Amino acid sequence: MTDPDRRDAGAEITRLIDIMAQLRDPASGCPWDIEQDFASIAPYTIEEAHEVADAIGRRAWDELPGELGDLLLQVVFHAQMADERDMFDFADCAAAISDKLVFRHPHVFGNESRDKSAEQQVKDWEAIKATERAHKAEDGTLDGVAMGLPALTRAIKLQNRAARVGFDWPSAAEVLDKIAEETAELVEARDSLDADALEEEFGDLLFVMANLARHLKIDPEGALRRANAKFTRRFGVVEASLAAQGRRPEDSDLAEMDRLWNQAKLAEKAAE
C-alpha cells in the first residue's frame, strides 16, 4: 500500500532539474550560477560529500535529508552544465549508475548464485571492476584510482590495489618497522632545513601510517575525524573553564591550558 504522505520521488527530481535549469538560464537565471563551470563546482561537490559524512558521524538524522539534498544538487548542477554543452544529462547519469549496479551484481540481477562467502563476493567484485577497467583501457594496477579523493583515502585504495598483486608487507610488524625508518628520515630532513625534502619525508610517513591503518583494518579518515572531534571537544572544555574565570585562551599560557586539557581528559575517562 502506498503511503499517501510520501513524496513522489520522480516528481521531486524533475522539479529540482527544472529549478537548476532556470538558475542557469542566461537571460533570467542567477548570475553566480551562470558563471560556474565544472572546475568551480567540483570543490563544493567534495565539501557536500564531507558534510553528509559529518551528519552521519554525529548521528544527526534530522539533518541528513538536507545534506543529502545538497549533495544531490551537485549532481544536478554538473548534469545541467553538461546538458548545455550537449555532452550528457541527468538521465544519462542515472542510467550509468543503474547499468553499473546491475552489471556488478549478477548474483542479484543475473543467474549467479547468491550462496557465496563475503570473501568470494569481494573477489568477484574485483574481477568485475577489472573487466570494466579493461574496457576503459586502464591496464595498470593503479589506473582508475581517482585523483580527487582525500589523500588518505586514495592512499588506502592505491595500497589495496598493489596488495592484490602481492606488493604488500606480510603483517603490521613490518609496517611498524617502516614507520620507524620513515620517522628517522623525517628527523634527518628536519635537521637539513630543506623544505622540499621535509615535505616529501612527511608525506612518506603519512603514506606508511595509512598502510598501518589498512593492516589494522582501521579507516584512517574515520580515525582522524574521531581524533579531530576529540580535540575539538576537549579544547572546548579548556575554553569553557577559562571563560568561567572571565578569560580567553590568549589570556592563558600553555602550562595552564595543558593542565585544563588533562582535567578534561580525566573527566572523559571517568565518564566512560
Automatic annotation (TrEMBL):
SUPFAM superfamilies membership: all-alpha NTP pyrophosphatases (SSF101386)
Family as reported in the entry's similarity comment: Belongs to the nucleoside triphosphate pyrophosphohydrolase family.
Alphabetical keyword list: Hydrolase
GO function terms (MF aspect): ATP diphosphatase activity
Top-level lineage group: Bacteria
Protein name (record): Nucleoside triphosphate pyrophosphohydrolase
Organism: Paracoccus sediminis
EC number: 3.6.1.8
InterPro entries: MazG-like_dom, NTP-PPase_MazG-like_C, NTP-PPase_MazG-like_N, NTP_PyrPHydrolase_MazG
CDD domains, sorted: NTP-PPase_MazG_Cterm, NTP-PPase_MazG_Nterm
Span of domain NTP pyrophosphohydrolase MazG-like: 36-109, 175-234
Catalysed reaction equations from the record: ATP + H2O = AMP + diphosphate + H(+)
A single BP term in Gene Ontology: dUTP catabolic process
